[in-house]
Amino acid sequence: MKIVIYLFLCLFMFSCKDQGNEKKEAISYLVKAKEIPINKEIRALIPNEYDKVITETIDFDNDSKKDYICTVYDSKKQANIEYWITSDYKLLFQNEFSESMNYKFFINLDNDNLMELFRCSGEEDGIDYAFYDIKNNKLEPLLYFTPILIDDSKPNNYYYGYAWDISEIVISDNKLLSAITINDSIERDGNIQMPKNQRFLPIIFFKGKTTQPEIKYNKTFKKNYYSLEKIRNSVKVKDNQHLKTITSLKSELANYKIKKEVKCDLNKDKKEDLILFFEPKEIKNLGEYDSYLLNSPVYVLINAGQDKFVVSKNDKIIYTLSFNCPDDGLKKVVVRDNSFLIEQNTCDEFGNFQNDNITFEYNLETKSITLEKFKRDYFERKDHSEMLPLSTMVSSKNFGKVFFEDYDSRKQYDKIK
């Protein structure tokens, strides 16, 4: 009898040990966060100045315990702030975004237990689709792509994968059905992001029911199942592929014209660098509910010799058009040593004139461009008198490190603490 009990205990202990060391099964399907009422433990982690808190629950670390994502809107910053909170009520990180459209799904696409975020975010004039990894207590973009929808009720056609039409991702053995050649990529209109570490946006296939069947693609895609790592490697910028010529850049921007060209030498190598300001050849009217249009890309070209340039791009600096604003757009550009100042005017949501002075600096060591100084002034519409309280110039000591590519004129950098 003692031997039987001993054997039973051994089997039980080994069974428990195996379960403790068992790796969590990868979630190979899309999971949506579920909105729930906020509780007192979560409320204590959110600043009291935010009255409305949207609270969602999702097991983003895949430990079989529900974690939380709380979203608030900061009217001063004119931005949304997410608080990512673990199941034991610890604040993991904060994430800030200004886009009004924000759809998010979760799926595990790699070998760790942390879920990847599939976020669709943007405005009416363009939505970005991307996978993000939770790494070093922040969201890091893994891949931007174009979503294509397979609607089983309408065979033999592909449709654009709007976020609200997507119900599942096409996946097999943790590999995504994708088209990863540049010939399969689709030219997309609107204000979307093209990350500088990608040559193009690959196709990722989803399933769902289309609400816009008129937007379809009859082309034959060269598709197959690939791992996320394989897809990323196929589209990433290889060594020297971020180098462009002026001719190739103008070809890429065939629908734009150069509004202003500034010659300079930001990296002090005695070669002529360029700052180019583009605007659309045809500026479309604002939508019924739009108050502005950001579609005037700014390119900084650092001369690499042999008529090639290292390119940095931002399309969220210059306001192309603002609603009922007689005094908006680029005013002047001033280069001093390895810094350049951009001054632009627009109108705020109350119709007052808004004047931005934005200074970027080229770092000679890191070869990166970051926001150095920022000042935003407001003036009365009727007589152009400066409004109180008077604004002050702030620096990176106030707003932290902001890369040129990430700068967004919709944010209030003088309010960031």
Layout of SSEs?
Blueprint: H1 2-21, E1 34-36, H2 40-43, E2 54-58, E3 67-74, E4 79-85, E5 91-97, E6 101-107, E7 116-123, E8 126-135, E9 138-150, E10 158-160, E11 166-169, E12 171-172, E13 175-179, E14 203-208, E15 216-217, E16 224-226, H3 228-235, E17 243-244, H4 246-252, E18 256-264, E19 273-280, E20 292-293, E21 296-305, E22 308-318, E23 321-322, E24 329-336, E25 339-347, E26 353-362, E27 369-379, E28 394-395, H5 396-399
How would you describe the oligomerization state of the chains in this entry?
A: single chain
Our measurement of the CA-to-CA distance between the termini, rounded to an integer number of angstroms, reads 70 Å
How many strands, what sense, and barrel or not for the largest sheet?
A: 11 strands, mixed
Using only C-alpha atoms, the radius of gyration works out to 25 Å
Helix content: 10-25%
Number of strands: 28
Which structural class best describes the helix and strand composition? mainly beta
Question: What can you tell me about this protein's structure?
Answer:
- The chain is 10% helix and 42% strand.
- Strands 6, 7, 8, 9, 10, 11, 12, 13, 14, 15 and 16 form an 11-stranded mixed β-sheet that branches.
- It has helices at 2-21, 40-43, 228-235, 246-252, 396-399; strands spanning 34-36, 54-58, 67-74, 79-85, 91-97, 101-107, 116-123, 126-135, 138-150, 158-160, 166-169, 171-172, 175-179, 203-208, 216-217, 224-226, 243-244, 256-264, 273-280, 292-293, 296-305, 308-318, 321-322, 329-336, 339-347, 353-362, 369-379, 394-395.
- Residues 1-22 have low confidence and may be disordered.
- With 417 residues, it is mostly beta strands.
